[in-house]
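Hi there. Long-time user, first ticket. I'm pasting a complex I've been working with (about 946 residues overall). I'd like to know whether the download I got is complete or cut off, because the file seemed smaller than I expected. Thanks.
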Amino acid sequence: MTTDAELLAAVGRLAARLLRSEGSEPVRAAWPATEVESALGLALPAQGRPAGEVLASVAALLEAAPAMAGPRFWNQLFGGRDLVATAADMLASVANHSLYTYRAAGPLVVVEQLVLARMAALAGFDAGEGTICPGGSVSNLCAVVIARGEAIAASREEGVDGRACRIYASAEAHYSVRKAAMTAGLGRNGCRDIPCDAQGRMDPTALDAALTEDRAAGLTPVLVAATAGTTVRGAFDPLPAIADVCARHGVWLHVDAAFGGAMLLSAQTRGLLAGVERADSLTWDAHKVMGVPLLCSALLMRRRGHLAAQLGETADYLFQCDDAELNPGTRALQCGRRDDALKLWALWQHQGDAGLAARVETLRAQALRLSDLASAHPRLQLAEAPPSLTVCLRTPGADAAAVCDLLAAERRQLVGHGLIGGERIVRVAIVDPSHDEAALHALINDIDDATQRLALGPPQTWARLAGHSGGLS
Amino acid sequence: MTTDAELLAAVGRLAARLLRSEGSEPVRAAWPATEVESALGLALPAQGRPAGEVLASVAALLEAAPAMAGPRFWNQLFGGRDLVATAADMLASVANHSLYTYRAAGPLVVVEQLVLARMAALAGFDAGEGTICPGGSVSNLCAVVIARGEAIAASREEGVDGRACRIYASAEAHYSVRKAAMTAGLGRNGCRDIPCDAQGRMDPTALDAALTEDRAAGLTPVLVAATAGTTVRGAFDPLPAIADVCARHGVWLHVDAAFGGAMLLSAQTRGLLAGVERADSLTWDAHKVMGVPLLCSALLMRRRGHLAAQLGETADYLFQCDDAELNPGTRALQCGRRDDALKLWALWQHQGDAGLAARVETLRAQALRLSDLASAHPRLQLAEAPPSLTVCLRTPGADAAAVCDLLAAERRQLVGHGLIGGERIVRVAIVDPSHDEAALHALINDIDDATQRLALGPPQTWARLAGHSGGLS
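Hi, the file is complete. Here it is re-exported in full:
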């Protein structure tokens, strides 16, 4: 019989073990999907199993899954962790509040408001407000829905002909913008791709022309989604010029800074987002660069009132007391809302403004350092000067995707690839400040080594030589 | 200097303390919102604070917030917890996987598929599939978007005139259905309220008439959302008759069983959902009745393929390897997805099918027991025989809302209220099997006592007499 206290103590020990295993075995063997259920004994049982035994299975399962942190992980726009934020998130799971009403969540509502107000202020939204969404895709969707309601007043109550509406994003924007257009009834084609310059930034002149063309065709431009930190290149669309275009056409400006929002935390980097204070709304994912656990996406609004005006519903059985102001469920797409604010508040308490600024500066310095290493490298090539926190490398003589796959199969590095102007490159995401000089060197050396071997022959040979089944095609 | 292991050990101890405080102080003092920031020292600092100190603040904050579990909590459709599920969720925060690709989440993708397949099978969707969403509102929204795409083939690519589309739900359905209509571009009025019978169940004849009328008017019926377990009364819409109507009109049948889905876990209660196997889609929140932490809403589909066909996007930088089947991000509204499956898998391992069935049977027995206590009570009245897991009580001589507020202000019980046919009643949610006979008696006695006192005079008198500032209006 395991007591509650014993079980929770075991959670602490298993969590510590998980952290250690990320250091000692940072790239784990990939399991062929077809073997997972039987090999790991995952089948759901008719009769229950003892708590301690289940917890051990959970830990074993997590250690069999890819490690999402540690010195060899560069594969997503999140990585590493601030352990205080993680600890707060663990306690949020225990406390299990739903952030919809003050009656249900009390002071935790104020906690969410505090972090949102600070983020809004950093964006120059001094009279703004916000809501924390389960991911940047949901934040972007909410922005589209709100902008649609503002552009076409009848849409909230009466609906809208989505075929006559358009939103605009650069050709290198995140796919969630297109998905938001589809969800909101505009269709995927309702999201118009605006061409980029050679650095992957939206061309404001092309945006201007598209808006003029669509207006002339009788279409209603609903929202322009500029990107601050594109997924592959880390590029920042030119916000001042885009804001000018939006102002001229009277169109809602949304900035998808899911990846790049953290650049606002340091005076050294916030210039990348110059002009953001003119945006109407902003997506900023704290679970990416800032090191809090998934998910924590802030949707920030320059003006108060839009969230409730477009997303609010009355519900007699839920919103029973307190000002609407204190009931964040009136400003959200969701009803029940996990407390994803507490971990961000804990991070801020632990780091302070100064620590968060230093974090971003460290990451930027690491990106520049990796960029220097690549520039100076005899064989690898830097694809472009990194605008922010992704570094893109050419692997001459070998396909960059094959390089990534080989590194994963050989359990050396987890890193992904992308396209720049049709050319496939290795994309390194620099989001974990614990990655030190040695980690950067190991990464460069491993990419170089894989590239050289692949240049000699087909990848199958090398994967087999390395004695791994791979499982990652 | 706190080591990682020490910090995580502290998490275990603080979590245990939080559990104890739910027992010793189950209804906490309510903080006036204006005092929270300074009284609890919540302001975000310029310089960071030590980890241990922040963690202590987090714990203090959680103990100052309302307790969402424990013997006096009957206020939401979730309550209590299965501690093994909670423990798994805590470890999920540490491991921090994103369930979008097999490369990123490996075996955890299979874990999600296993729990979804079991839930789908329980719904009679033997060839089905599913996805876990951050809450029932998102699940319902996805169902509307998918049904819209199936009803009007061009809508996914070209968009749709939402003004010409309709969805249908009972007048007692959850507000998220109306919000989904708004989000999808149909407008709030695009959700048509279908009248209910005296027991709060959708009238299939009225549904039939509405569909006929709308078709004749040239409108496109997109989806019927039947409710299995309404929020206040716990009523179940008559699925066989509704499925007949949907089949006759060729309309997508969605069942919002966010609350009632758990009734499928026991042979004794699954009859409430008879006919669900004819639905096209189903929302079932495991974070409600089943005791896993927020959020864990399963959207289940009777047929494979609809999720990816309507929600899928290509993303070269993300979906880089493995079959689409193994990349659940192709079947989701979100991009990054917190691992909300692991806790449910852990619950199932701990309880087994048998334990989950027993859980539901215990809850149903408690609801009937409370209903008997109310029926036999000399003053309180049972508003109606409870269809499932909510019990609605009349408080003759006092306003039910005032009764709930008084009980909260006096820190005796947390329970909410609702409307049945315009009459305000106390709604007791029976979702925590650890509520024993004594807890049921205490609840009845406290409701009776508050009712009697309120019947004597204005609530202000009593709140002041009790010596509490209240803070809950």
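A couple of notes from our side: The CA atoms of residues 109 and 228 of chain B lie 28 Å apart. The longest helix of chain B spans residues 342-375.
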